[in-house]
Amino acid sequence: MVVTVKSTRPKAEILRFLSSATVYLYHVDLLSRVKGQVESLHRELSLMKAFLKVSWEKRSKRREQGIFRPNRCAMARGFGGGLGVRACCLPKIDQGMQGRLAII
């Protein structure tokens, strides 16, 4: 684009004005690019917050205590599918009964 300017001002003053206008436009472009990067980082940060919130909730569910032992629920352990509940093996017979059964 060619612009013809007729002015009574000296050429040095016009060139100074054009160079300052160019610098201004450069800074405006730079600011718009930085603003775009900041918005992108803000989106990534909000996604990271959501991910961390879910992971903290899963971790707290894994640490919940069951009635007798730590929670063995598959969902609490973060497994995606399979059985809904895992059984945990506990002795069925107390110590006193084992002695009697050994005699029989």
Q: How far apart lie the N and C ends?
A: 108 Å
User: How many β-strand stretches?
Assistant: 0
What sort of overall outline do the alpha carbons produce when their principal axes are compared?
rod-shaped
Portion of residues in beta strands equals under 5%
Residue runs with pLDDT of under 50 for 5 or more positions: 81-85
**Class computed from helices, strands and strand pairing:** mainly alpha
Q: Cα-atom Rg, whole angstroms?
A: 36 Å
What letter string, H or E per element, gives the SSE order? Answer: HH
The biggest sheet amounts to: none
Can you give the mean pLDDT? 69
Count of alpha and pi helical runs: 2
**Helical amount:** 55-70%
Provide the domain count: 2
Task: Describe what you observe in this structure.
This protein is mainly alpha-helical and 104 residues long. It has two domains: 7-63; 66-104, no CATH class. Helix content is 60%, strand content 0%. It has helices at residues 11-63, 95-103. The longest helix is centred in the middle third of the chain and has 53 residues, at 11-63. It is rod-shaped. 0% of the residues are buried.
Note the topology.
Blueprint: H1 11-63, H2 95-103
In short:
The protein contains 2 helices and no strands. With 104 residues, the chain is an all-alpha fold.
